[in-house]
Amino acid sequence: MKESFFIKRFGASPFFRVIDFFIDNYGYDYSKTEIAKGAGMSRVTLNTFFEELVDLGVIKKTRDVGRAKMYQLNMDSPITRELIKIDKMITIKETMNVSDEKLAEIIKNIEKQKVAVPA
User: Fold this and answer.
1) What is the per-residue burial (b if ≥16 Cβ within 10 Å, else e) of 101-116?
2) Among 14, 68, 98, 107, which is 20 to 30 Å from 6 by CA?
3) Residue 116, pLDDT score
């Protein structure tokens, strides 16, 4: 599994790997088993902090499929929106190799255009 720029900057802790998994897979819902597999960890590890992500409002339960509960990124959460914004800024900075000043200008232009985040 290739490390994202988000993980390179924040570290590969299980907590951040789950956030990164959801940002990279925006718009879909997943069971805990799928989340753990996608983030490269066991369900036991995921369960040690999963409720914290739900309590923070970063992810939310969407539905039940049989016995499985499904979860997705909570786009109504200001924390989630800022995490996505940070992910986009890190990606732009790393891929375009721009200064902080140029990055601020790019972000300002994106916000003026009301570009939907994530794309």
Assistant:
1) eeeeebeeeeeeeeee
2) 68
3) 52
Rounded to whole angstroms, the Cα distance separating 96 from 14 reads 28
Would you say the C-alpha torsion 42, 34, 88, 81 has a positive or negative sign?
Answer: negative
CA angle at residue 52 from 47 to 57, to 5 degrees? 125
Would you say 24 and 6 are in contact if contact means Cβ atoms under 8 Å apart?
Answer: no
pTM: 0.81
**Which overall architecture, per CATH, does domain 5-73 show?**
Orthogonal Bundle (1.10)
